Amino acid sequence: MTDDLAGQQESDAPASAPAANSADIEKIRREFDERFKGMQRLVADKDRALADAQRQLENAALERLPDDDRAKALLERERAETAKIRNAYELLLLKDEYPDELPAFQKLLAGKTPKEQLDILRELRKGPSSAPAANPEPPDVDPNNPMRTPPDEELFDGEPMNNELADRILKGAGKTTLAKLRALGAR
C-alpha cells in the first residue's frame, strides 16, 4: 500500500445522502407543476390574445381595401390556410411510413428563416451522440477518487488476502515482476 492511500480517512457516511423526506419532495414537485401549468396557461392566453389582435388588424386593413382587392386578399388567406392544413394532413399520413425521420423533419420545418433551418440541420447532423444527456446518471464511484478497499480483503474463495498470499501470486507471475514491484515499493 502506498503512503498516499494510507493517509486517507475512511468514512461510514454514504457517498450520496438520501433525500430528507420524500413527502417534502413530492410536495415541492406538485407545487412546481401547479405553477408551471399556470405559467403555461398564461402564455397560451397571451398567444390567443395576440392572434386575435393580429386577426383584427388584418381585418381592419382588409376593410380599407377596395372590394376586388379585398376578395383577392381573402382568397389568398384561405389558400394559405388550406395549404397549411393539407401539409399537416400529409405529415399525419406519412407518420407510419417514416416514424424515425418525421420528428427531425418537423423540427426542420419549425425554423422560420433559412438561417434557423440551417442551424437545426447542423444540430441534426451532429446526431444524438454529441447532445448532452437529459439526466445523466452519476457514477457509483468517482473514477478520479475510487473507494478505498481494506488491505486484508477476502478473495473469491473466502481466503483472506495477506502479504504471503500476494507473494505467492506474484511469484507465479514471474520473479522479475516481483522484483520490479518490490523496487517500486508496492509491497
Number of strands: 0
Principal-axis shape equals elongated
Order of helices and strands: HHHHHHH
Q: Give the class from helix and strand content and strand pairing.
A: mainly alpha
Indicate the radius of gyration in whole angstroms: 34 Å
User: What is the helix content?
Assistant: 55-70%
Uncertain runs with pLDDT below 50, 5 residues or more?
Answer: 10-18
Termini separation: 6 Å
Largest sheet features: none
Query: How much of the sequence is in beta strands?
Result: under 5%
Total domains: 2
Total helical segments: 7
Mean pLDDT reading: 76
Description:
- 63% of the residues lie in helices and 0% in strands.
- The protein has helices at 3-6, 22-63, 67-94, 101-110, 114-126, 163-173, 175-184.
- The chain is mainly alpha-helical and 187 residues long.
